[in-house]
Design a protein that fits this description.
This protein has no helices and 3 strands. The protein is globular, with a radius of gyration of 9 Å. The chain is an all-beta fold. The N and C termini lie far apart (20 Å). A hairpin with a 3-residue loop joins strand 2 and strand 3. It has one domain.
Amino acid sequence: MSDDSGRPCPMCGTQMYKRHCKYVCPQHGVVVDCSDPFTF
């Protein structure tokens, strides 16, 4: 079970959603790819 929703955007705090292995902020677009070696 995985909860990928509800992550805040590090730039504005808006709730992001996960799409095609990327975390997407509705205001900033793609913020981070899930293959990046860090987690915020």
